[in-house]
Design a protein that fits this description.
Elements: H1 2-8, E1 16-19, H2 23-26, H3 28-37, E2 40-43, H4 53-65, H5 75-91, H6 103-113
Parallel strand pairs: 1-2
Protein name: IS3 family transposase
Organism: Caproiciproducens faecalis
InterPro entries: Integrase_cat-core, RNaseH-like_sf, RNaseH_sf, Transposase_IS3/IS150/IS904
Length: about 110
């Protein structure tokens, strides 16, 4: 899977790949492939589920609000809907934890206050 991804990703793009500490991510050949491509490896701390809590929460919401609500007719259809959803999630969907603002609105407000 990593080799297929690397066919589409240019080298030296300063990407960060985050994972848990599964044995496959700790293998030297895997880590070497990342280094050669210029990808920085990030792993959760051992036994600390909180490291992934934010993204796990997002994926739960994403499944409920997009994936489980429709059938996709093709990969292109899915990609289109995903891009639309990400725009909605970041720019329009308000969250009570963000004082009733969308993530983008909240970040702009926080930056202006700093």
């Amino acid at each position: 899977m990593l080799e297929l991804a690397f066919q589409k990703i240019p080298s030296q793009t300063n990407l960060i790949l985050h994972s848990d500490q599964g044995w496959q991510y700790q293998m030297k050949p895997y880590q070497k492939m990342l280094r050669e491509k210029g990808v920085r490896q990030s792993m959760s701390r051992k036994g600390n589920c909180w490291d992934n809590a934010v993204i796990e929460n997002f994926f739960g919401i994403h499944k409920t609000e997009l994936l489980y609500l429709q059938d996709f007719t093709s990969m292109e259809h899915f990609k289109h809907e995903l891009v639309e959803y990400l725009d909605y999630y970041n720019n329009l969907r308000i969250k009570s934890k963000l004082k009733g603002l969308s993530p983008v609105q909240y970040r702009i407000q926080a930056l202006q206050s700093a």
